[in-house]
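The protein record quoted for completeness.
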Amino acid sequence: MTRRRGTAPGSELTRAVRGAGYVATVIPTVKTTLEVQGMGCSGCPEKVDAALGRIRGVRAVRIPSCNEAVIYYDRRRVSTNQLVQAVSRCGFTARARG
């Protein structure tokens, strides 16, 4: 299997892992970007990252700038509204982009 990073279909990865003798399950992960207002100090992104990371079903959080958060999550367990609420509970204003 020769592919660039991040481009292999889940079924191909599952077969490869199972072929190596392991158990594999593909978890449907989606990406969303939240616009976040009010993060003004260096500790703010850490606070938002921690709040989002505590949500069951969130796989990864990236905060590339002081006004956005990129979240990868299992949409079967988490809604965009739950992500926005978690950021709001930290004292910031958030809304889904797009």
Notes: The beta strands are 29-37, 58-65, 68-74, 93-96. The mean pLDDT is 87. The first strand starts at residue 29 and ends at 37.
